[in-house]
Specification:
The relative contact order is 0.18. The protein is of the alpha+beta class. The protein has an 8-stranded antiparallel beta sheet with strand order 13-14-12-11-17-18-10-19. Helix 1 (4-16) runs antiparallel to helix 3. The chain has 9 helices and 24 strands. Helix content is 27%, strand content 27%.
Length: 433
Amino acid sequence: MKDFFQNMVEKTMQLIAIDSVQGEPCPASPFGEGVAKCLDFVCDTAKGFGMSVNNEDGYYCTCDIGEGETFGILGHVDVVPYDDDWTANPLGEIKDGTIFGRGILDDKGPMMCCLFAVGQLLDEGYKPNCKIRFIFGGNEESGWKCIDHYNEVDVMPEKGFSPDGDFPVINCEKGLVGYEIFIDTPPKMLSLSGGSRVNIVMAKCSCVIDGELDCETSDKDLQIEVKDGKTYITAFGKPAHASTPSEGDNALWKILEYLSDKLGGEYTVLRDRLCHNDGSGANVKLCDEKSGKLTFNVGVADTDTKSGKIRLLIDIRHPVTYTKEDILERLKKSLDTQDAKVRNFHDPLYVEKDNSLVQSLLSAYNEITGENLSPITIGGGTYARALKCGVAFGPIFPGSESTIHQKDERVSIDVFKKMYEIYYHAIKKLLFT
């Protein structure tokens, strides 16, 4: 008998070995050679299960099986960047019963689980009761241009799920907005540079101040050097996904705390406005019953050479009963600027808890785990938002540590197998006869 799980692990490791951080456009994909190779790899794998496939010019690929109304399973092959601090190979390594690699949880591993679950059900003789369409996107982490292109050339399934969130099932996703805001540069600041992506808690931030400041600090994550009449400051934090900023440690906060202590004035005002994960300093501490509290993350801060101002990229995940426009006006007022705009956004998602899709996936999870959990809300943004009736389903288990977007992204083989069993059971329950 075929060992589908073991084969799936091997194929997933091959997929992770392809570096698919967004790169320069190439003939095979607008998102870089790595994304192109991943999409080709996925198509080849799906063809082995008898699926029909289409690689749409390197934007995304589809893998179809069955007939009738289309049910979508949506995920992505692109990944966020990784650094040199990993204790294992970020392009895939198994050690001590754990799989390490960028994408093992977000989102290569879960999508391969679902693909192989369908392959196993087909091999066992089950027949799809609808048309199952996998959509593997190539630009989820950097703008969703793959989904935009899909909607231009094809018809999105009305119903489906994305294995790119949390278990047991996510029926509500907060509004996700990236704001670009320019503020006046505080006195004596010559330059500021921190962060790489708005949706990651800032792990490093550097600043140059005109004048010699006291180098004394109790913060071990601050490096301060005085040279040629200037003070050079570098702060180190801890990255985390912007939907859970409290799990990280923002390096910008350390810079502002130090400068507030040494210079006060506008630096104290900035510290008070920006250094709160709930947005309370910027007058956006919002909450509702359906989706909970707003989260606030300054992911990028740098000196804009054209205007001479400080540019802030702020990631906000807001409750479903508020709008991005209302929040923008609050930010303008609290940060004393009119030079602010919405840079990117995904409107909130909400599917009623008693919806049949929600209940089917929830029961599949509870049946495999023996638990009795209810649907949840997240601040993350998944491809489920692209569907008229869509939810996120896994892969992170309740109470477990999530290493998504962090160094040493990983999952134990035992947990990965449990994940596979849940996807197999849910897909069989929903999509096969």
